[in-house]
Design a protein that fits this description.
The complex is a heterodimer of chains A (257) and B (273).
Chain A (H helix, E strand, L loop, with lengths): L1 H22 E3 L9 E2 L2 H8 L2 H32 L5 H13 L2 H14 L6 H26 L2 H9 L4 H30 L2 H7 L6 H10 L3 H22 L5 H6 L4
Antiparallel strand pairs in A: 1-2
Chain B lengths: L2 H33 L1 E2 L2 E2 L2 H41 L3 H6 L8 H12 L4 H8 L15 H25 L3 H9 L4 H12 L1 H16 L3 H6 L8 H12 L2 H30 L1
Antiparallel strand pairs in B: 1-2
Helix pairs in contact in B: 1-12, 2-6, 2-8, 2-9, 2-12, 4-6, 6-9, 7-8, 9-12, 11-12
The chains are: A mainly alpha (257), B mainly alpha (273).
């Protein structure tokens, strides 16, 4: 019991500070609670740039997720089922963006994107998000397809289905829970992505994490805290939703977000 | 493989591979190239500058990464041991929460919590544990960065270590208990040795991520020296436009990460053979 309380205190302490700050209108040190609380800053935020950053981030996340799914589901199926040459090399190439420090690489990627006129533009940010997100999609979906028993597809083929038909009517439906898990993983990754967006998107394309950073530097702690709280919500929702459905293997990939 | 399938595989594999090669692999390689260029000439001057200006930052970054890793693994190993032996679903769930909170939010939250006039000090001052005129500043220093990294990575560590512990057969633990082993002895003498490979892999994984952390030191670091390496790279580009030195610093960080990642890969391939 004491352990649980201690764990709760450790986990919630940072987040509770954010909650208090977002409702604080006047708060002087060293009082434990704000002298005056209210929704002043929430109203200010809703009228301001934050909503634009939120919308941009959401739109980018949706596009990133859709594109990633489109180009990785077929590849994952092939990696799981067919003897593609250089399979370990291919899997490793996707791992690189998460294994090496991203910032110095993305500095150079930004230059490359500006050369094709996508620096500071929507598609530039989408692409830089995909670089990091592809590994989540490819690795988890390959594992998902591997876990669908091959015998089921062979049975379909024995009954006369083509390879393509067996993919759409046997493999894909059975892989759906895993595909949903990796979709949500990619979506959350894109929503929360900071480094690439800061380098490629600034100052024209802002997502919520970059917006939050800019407001926190200017000592507008209430606005920054509200943005931070809003950023936490999709993550917590996902946690609650997936607590029932997600296996630990997928869960560990969230640690990289 | 039939030629038609071969061609189809190539076409299917091309888009995702192209994106990663174009926007990660090529820039990665060009770091090496750019680090040896200055004013259009081949030179080692950038590495001289890195040695002169940033060698303490390298040590600072390594210190933070090692300290945080040791703390995370130390806590996780013991905590998961107790969770493995005496199940506690509530604590397990609580420790999954930081997984879903992005690094930037963690940085900002920790700054608000640990700043000299932050909420932690404000709580402690209610109990008279602090001098109000000179509150300690955990944030804006190496300890603030370390605490943030520990908090965030503990969730991942608990997940991985508990998973490794759970794959240890219960009969081993029962045998130990029959010999009178306490919970601590069961952890130290059964669970830990049997999960050593998984622990090493998780450790390597987290070390490279801590080494390369950018958003957390950006939110919670101070503006003064020393800084973590990624901050140095960012400032060098943003305020001085010095791509040569920034890329040299990047190459140094790749080498540090490669040293650890190489070990990670070796352990993985050894496990599969």
């Amino acid at each position: 019991m004491a352990g649980t309380v201690l764990a709760a205190a450790v986990i919630f302490a940072p987040m509770s500070s954010l909650v208090i700050w977002s409702f604080a209108e006047k708060w002087y040190w060293p009082h434990l609670f704000p002298q005056q609380i209210g929704l002043f800053y929430w109203a200010k935020v809703i009228e301001g740039d934050m909503l634009r950053a939120l919308q941009a981030g959401f739109l980018i996340a949706v596009v990133v997720t859709g594109l990633t799914l489109l180009i990785t589901v077929p590849l994952a199926y092939l990696l799981a089922r067919t003897p593609i040459p250089f399979k370990p090399v291919i899997l490793m190439i996707f791992l690189l963006p998460q294994a090496f420090p991203q910032l110095p690489v993305f500095v150079n990627s930004t230059t490359l994107l500006y050369r094709v006129n996508q620096g500071g533009k929507f598609w530039g940010v989408v692409l830089i998000h995909m670089v990091g997100a592809l590994v989540f999609a490819v690795w988890t979906m390959t594992a998902v397809f591997k876990s669908v028993p091959e015998s089921l597809e062979e049975a379909a083929i024995n009954l006369g289905a083509s390879r393509l038909k067996s993919f759409f009517s046997v493999a894909l439906p059975l892989a759906t829970p895993g595909i949903i898990a990796s979709t949500l993983l990619v979506f959350l990754y894109s929503l929360d992505e900071f480094t690439g967006t800061l380098l490629v998107g600034s100052p024209f394309i802002l997502t919520l994490p970059v917006y939050m950073y800019r407001t926190s530097v200017g000592y507008e702690l209430q606005v920054a805290s509200i943005s931070a709280l809003l950023l936490m919500i999709p993550g917590i929702l996902l946690l609650l939703l997936l607590e029932r459905y997600m296996k630990s293997e997928y869960l560990s990939m969230f640690g990289r977000i | 493989m039939r030629p038609a399938l071969r061609i189809a595989s190539l076409i299917i594999a091309l888009p995702p591979l192209a994106i990663v090669v174009w926007l990660f692999f090529l820039p990665f390689l060009s770091s090496a190239h750019l680090s040896l260029q200055r004013d259009g000439q081949w030179t080692l001057r950038n590495y001289h500058l890195v040695w002169r200006l940033y060698r303490y930052d390298v040590l600072y970054t390594l210190w933070i990464a090692f300290f945080s890793l040791a703390a995370v693994l130390g806590i996780a190993v013991i905590l998961c041991g107790y969770l493995r032996i005496r199940t506690n679903r509530a604590v397990e769930f609580l420790f999954k929460i930081p997984l879903f909170i992005p690094f930037v939010v963690v940085g900002h939250a920790m700054r608000v919590l640990l700043a000299p006039r932050g909420t932690l000090n404000s709580v402690l001052s209610q109990f008279g544990l602090l001098d109000l005129n000179d509150p300690p500043s955990i944030a804006f220093g190496w300890l603030g960065i370390a605490v943030s990294l520990i908090w965030k990575n503990l969730a991942l560590a608990v997940l991985l270590v508990l998973g490794a512990y759970r794959s240890v057969d219960e009969t081993y633990l029962e045998a130990a208990r029959n010999f009178g082993a306490s919970a601590f002895r069961q952890i130290r003498d059964v669970l830990m040795p049997m999960s050593a490979a998984s622990l090493a892999v998780a450790g390597a994984f987290m070390f490279t991520s801590m080494l390369a952390s950018f958003s957390i030191p950006l939110m919670i670091g101070s503006g003064e020296q020393p800084q973590m390496l990624m901050i140095d790279v960012y400032y060098r580009i943003n305020y001085q436009g010095d791509y040569g030195t920034a890329n040299a610093l990047g190459v140094v960080s790749y080498l540090l990460a490669m040293g650890v990642a190489g070990y990670y890969l070796r352990t993985i391939t050894q496990k599969e053979t």
